[in-house]
């Protein structure tokens, strides 16, 4: 799948930077065009892989922003995205529109620029282009406080409605004890990149071997065409101690090589990796039987593939999701040192984390209003004398 990828806001730009880095390090092809849009100049300067000409600063003429950020206010983020849409659209003129399968808008949903601006951009792209527009949203951790939860819950509604499908990543699920804020975000961004690129770059002509069971962009697009919210599962394993070719060479001298045992081992390995992926951490935890459609990509050296293992894994996933809408394919990577599995669960409808986020957001809204009312009374008490005898100038 070839995409035009736009990171909106600080978190969105950093994730896109990681996508490009992972592509470069693994020889894959996903991002045919990459753009970073932000209201904070310093955040754009920190990017390493997004071309400098594709880093767009918005809000420079807005008195509340002036290149210093939206102040965690999504209303400001949405406003400057609309005000400066011509700047963004000019940058989008560089998109090789006849060579992409869709757009991917990436944003953190707890701040201001991304949570407010990303849905605006997604809606604009949907109106302007025929290609599908997908979203990748990063939820704030619960311990970041009420304001980020309030922003995220509001943005989630707008972002989902503005995109063909919104893949979510939950920071709460991925933070490790003892992580600093910067270290934690950097590591989770790498996890996002690994899952998204492994899944969406499968089947592209990037110099890798082409398989008869290769995944292509139409498979991905069909799986994502459900709308709603989606999650990605991932698992990987080291290769066998020797490749199948090495084992075959040894067998010439030992006559002890058992090809049926090799096939059985690989069948179990592929099947086991798919089960492990789905049963472990998803990008956002969800009840897998609430998924409408699923897609499985097995990536690694062709010698480690097993079509029988993929068939068994697909049958198992059909039972687990209670759906026959399961597509599966492989992505041969001759030089890979691991066998990886990525599973897309599309349109999951039972997601406890979203319910918890919404509850936290409702409480935060009530507290914000109550604090504002109390603060106004306290200010009046402070600047007014008790007897009311002093008149303001």
TrEMBL record:
Query: What is the superkingdom listed in this entry's lineage?
Result: Archaea
Would the keyword Transcription regulation be found if you checked this record's keyword annotation?
no
Its protein name is: Tubulin-like protein CetZ
Composition skew (Acidic residues), residue ranges: 375-393
| Residues annotated as binding GTP | 112-114, 144, 171, 189
Question: Where does this protein reside within or beyond the cell?
Answer: Cytoplasm
Going by the UniProt record, its keywords in alphabetical order are: Cell shape, Cytoplasm, GTP-binding, Nucleotide-binding
PROSITE patterns, per database record: TUBULIN (PS00227)
Q: Which Pfam families match?
A: CetZ_C, Tubulin
Signal sequence segment: none
Main location group:
cytoplasm
Family the entry assigns? Belongs to the CetZ family.
Question: From the UniProt record, which GO molecular function terms apply?
Answer: GTP binding; GTPase activity
Q: What does this protein do?
A: Involved in cell shape control.
């Amino acid at each position: 799948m070839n995409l035009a990828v736009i990171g909106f806001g600080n978190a969105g730009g950093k994730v896109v930077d990681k996508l490009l880095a992972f592509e470069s390090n693994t020889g894959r092809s996903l991002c045919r065009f990459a753009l970073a849009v932000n209201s904070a100049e310093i955040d754009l300067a920190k990017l390493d892989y997004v071309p400098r000409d594709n880093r767009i600063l918005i809000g420079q003429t807005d008195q509340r922003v002036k290149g210093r950020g939206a102040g965690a206010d999504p209303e400001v983020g949405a406003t400057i995205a609309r005000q400066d849409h011509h700047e963004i659209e000019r940058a989008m003129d560089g998109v090789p529109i006849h060579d992409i399968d869709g757009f991917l808008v990436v944003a953190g949903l707890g701040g201001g620029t991304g949570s407010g601006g990303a849905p605006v951009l997604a809606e604009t792209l949907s109106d302007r282009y025929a290609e599908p527009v997908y979203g990748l949203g990063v939820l704030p951790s619960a311990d970041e406080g009420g304001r980020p939860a309030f922003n995220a819950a509001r943005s989630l509604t707008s972002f989902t409605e503005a995109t063909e499908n919104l893949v979510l990543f939950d920071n709460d699920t991925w933070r490790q004890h003892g992580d600093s804020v910067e270290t934690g975000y950097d590591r989770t961004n790498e996890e996002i990149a690994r899952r998204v690129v492994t899944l969406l770059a499968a089947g592209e002509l990037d110099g890798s071997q082409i398989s008869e069971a290769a995944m292509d962009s139409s498979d991905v697009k069909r799986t994502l065409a459900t709308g709603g919210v989606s999650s990605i599962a991932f698992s990987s394993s080291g290769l066998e101690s020797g490749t199948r070719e090495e084992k075959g060479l040894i067998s010439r001298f030992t006559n002890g090589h058992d090809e049926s045992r090799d096939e059985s081992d690989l069948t179990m390995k592929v099947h086991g990796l798919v089960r492990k992926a789905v049963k472990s951490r998803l990008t956002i935890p969800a009840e897998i039987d609430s998924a409408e459609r699923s897609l499985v990509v097995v990536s690694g050296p062709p010698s480690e593939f097993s079509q029988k293992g993929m068939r068994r894994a697909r049958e198992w996933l059909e039972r687990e999701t209670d759906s026959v809408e399961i597509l599966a394919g492989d992505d041969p990577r001759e030089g890979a040192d691991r066998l990886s599995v990525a599973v897309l669960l599309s349109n999951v409808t039972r997601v406890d984390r979203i319910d918890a986020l919404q509850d936290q957001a409702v409480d935060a809204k009530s507290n914000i209003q109550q604090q504002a009312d109390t603060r106004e009374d306290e200010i009046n008490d402070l600047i007014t004398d008790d007897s009311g005898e002093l008149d303001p100038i």
